[in-house]
Amino acid sequence: MKRKVFAGPAVRRLREEAGWPQQLLARKIGISPSYLNQIERSQRPLSAAVLVELTRVFRVDISQISNSDEDRLLVDLQDALSDPALAHPAPPSAELQAVIQHAPSVARALVRLQAANRALEDKYQALDQTLSHSEPGHAGGALAFPYDEVRDFFHQIGNYVDDLDRQAEATHAELGADASELSGALIDRLELRHRLAVKIDRTFGFDRPIRQFDRASRTLHIDGSAELSSQTFALAHQLALFEAQDVAMAVLAQADFRSTNANAVCSVALANYFAGALILPYQRFRDAARLHRHDLSILTHLFGASLEQVAHRLSTLQRPGARGVPFYFLRIDRAGNITKRHSATRLRFARYGGACPLWNVHQAFETPDRMLAQIAEMPDGTRYLSLAQAITKAGIGYSAVRRRYAIGLGCELSDANQLVHADELDTENVRSIVKIGTSCRLCERHNCSQRAFPPAGASIQIDPDLREAVPYRLGD
């Protein structure tokens, strides 16, 4: 007989660390507040369904709630069978418990099968677009691309580097400066502690670097025509190169990159991470985001940061015991190339090529300086609140180059009530939901009028007597 699981203290601790009242957690996991109250007081055991929901909502390993091998296998099996490729809809918990009790080897085989399928899908995404140039990697002829390796590494660690984040937060506290004074405080620290000469170059010039350090004269040049948020970020990046190198080297040692230039790419990424964490210190920023319900314009004003810096930082709030809302973040150019991407959600980006044309991140270029909100549904049925806004990075002068990007930020719809941007959306109206995909090569939707080409490996049917929006139909 399966033992009953009483885990009241663990559930209460996780809820309090998240800062949620009982009513909010009860709503998230689909039970009544009174039932949750009894669970936390260890008056009721955890059912299999509640246990699965708790691990999903808190994004924790089941060991933090239960030490039972059967419970762990139950959660693994539930997660595996939530994959649309294996079951629709997922079997009820009672059936899964019966499988675990009477055929545990079959349950483990299904978990392994789904893990293998997920790994195959990752490889499938890697072949999303044929690339003509690459760098040689290890022995065996494997190909590795430095930017892809670094992006994958940050995805694997949850886009959060604890030691670096805490050091940046402590440095911000030492500086003791608010947003309007932070740039000056960074200059003082660089000049006094590291004996640099910091020069803010306010002359006009085209294609001038935002930051350039002359090692011989120990002079740091900052482009004075750049926005103040960019200047502050450049100063914080330089400080990271002096004060956070030990932590960065330890992270690089763990990464074990294959491609030649990945260490150099990751070093820059880690210095950028430190800079963002210094300008937007974890606890203060997380508390402000909660207080103002993630209103991006308020957060940029409070911290003197750019929209891109704030959106990127929101995707990194994954500190154990003090996690923020899990967001995805991306930046695309006008050709649809994804130039930055991070995700603390289940959303997967196309590794190469453009994103889905129905995603509002593309529409943002048509309405500059306006925040767009969209309810988007992926092929697996997961729905997201997707925010997008176009930004322009321009120099000074008539002939200055203007770089245009669109910023995308989003969370799963179950967390959308924590964002002010969702207040005017009808989340229950099925007609308002836009069905998107990762990219045309990976999306198997049959009825998409915006399809550019068939998904990889799919058969197509051509009817010479029929012409619809797309000149073919996908085979079964």
Please tell me about this protein's structure.
41% of the residues lie in helices and 14% in strands. It has 476 residues and is an alpha+beta fold. It has a six-stranded mixed beta sheet. A three-stranded mixed beta sheet has the order 3-5-4. α12 (245-255) packs across α13. The two termini are 44 Å apart. Mean pLDDT is 85; it is low at 129-143.
Give the topology, please.
Elements: H1 8-18, H2 22-29, H3 33-40, H4 48-58, H5 69-81, H6 93-102, H7 104-126, E1 135-136, E2 143-144, H8 146-156, H9 162-175, H10 182-194, E3 197-201, E4 211-214, E5 219-223, H11 228-243, H12 245-255, H13 262-279, H14 282-291, H15 296-303, H16 307-314, E6 328-333, E7 338-343, H17 360-363, E8 372-377, E9 383-394, E10 402-412, E11 433-435, E12 460-461, E13 473-474
Parallel strand pairs: 3-5, 8-11
Antiparallel strand pairs: 1-2, 4-5, 6-7, 6-10, 8-9, 9-10, 12-13
Helix pairs in contact: 2-3, 4-5, 5-6, 5-7, 6-7, 8-13, 9-13, 10-11, 11-13, 12-13, 15-16
